[in-house]
Amino acid sequence: MDKARAWLRSKTRGSQKAGVLVSKAAARFKPLAIHILEQGDENAVHWFLEDRDDVRSSNYLEDAATEIQVQGLELDYTCVLWDADVRCDNMKWKFYNFNGKTAWREETGKTESSLERRKYMLNAYRVLLTRARIGMVICVPEGNHNYISSGFPEDATRLPEFYDGTYKYFRSIGLEEI
Predict the structure, then answer these.
(1) Which of these, 64, 105, 119, 131, has the minimum number of CB atoms within 10 Å of its CB?
(2) What does the CA dihedral 105, 110, 113, 117 come to, rounded to 10 degrees?
(3) What is the DSSP letter of 149?
């Protein structure tokens, strides 16, 4: 995320706008020091309209807006921060919802409601990937590689394998690493 912020700051000039975007289903970005804007028009208005000197501005790159808040809006430069809700696993996209506490649950698509949730999640990333006018960086976190002394993951909600396949997919289609 530090590289993504540096890239965005190096690109924006004058009154150009940059911002961090996440899916509404994103759940595990606190460890990356990213705050997701609360739903509501007032938060998004300040995020989108304030100038670079205002800490509420998108240009501060501290608050992330969701697909709901940026639908129909464009920024000059964006960082799409990719979470483990939509993952590429062996070149197949899989969809997950976070239970709010300890685990991700796969949307298998075996019921009508699960198929609808998968469509919504896919569309969320479509919206996020189409908000940049000039340039975009996609940030796929590394996950947490640490284990506690008893051998269990320090953070089982951010395992590296949740992100590795997505990163490899983007590299395989020609995206460059910054």
Answers:
(1) 105
(2) 50
(3) T
> By C-alpha distance, which of 135, 140, 136, 36 is closest to 86?
140
Q: What is the pTM of this model?
A: 0.91
Dihedral angle, C-alpha 54, 63, 143, 6, nearest 10 °:
-30
Report the range out of 29-38, 95-104, 167-176 with the highest average pLDDT: 167-176
How far is residue 95's CA from residue 81's CA, in Å, rounded to a whole number? 16
Where are the alpha helices (H) located in the chain, listed in sequence order? 2-11, 41-49, 67-70, 112-128, 161-172
**63-66/35-36 β-pairing:** parallel
Q: What pLDDT was estimated at residue 41?
A: 66
What pLDDT sits at residue 31?
A: 81
CA-closest candidate to residue 86, choices 114, 56, 106, 64: 106
| Locus of tokens 């501060």 | 60
Report helix, strand or coil for 104: strand
**Single-letter amino acid, residue 123:** N
In 10 A of CB 161, how many CB atoms?
Answer: 10
Of 29-38, 96-105, 123-132, the one with minimum mean pLDDT is 29-38
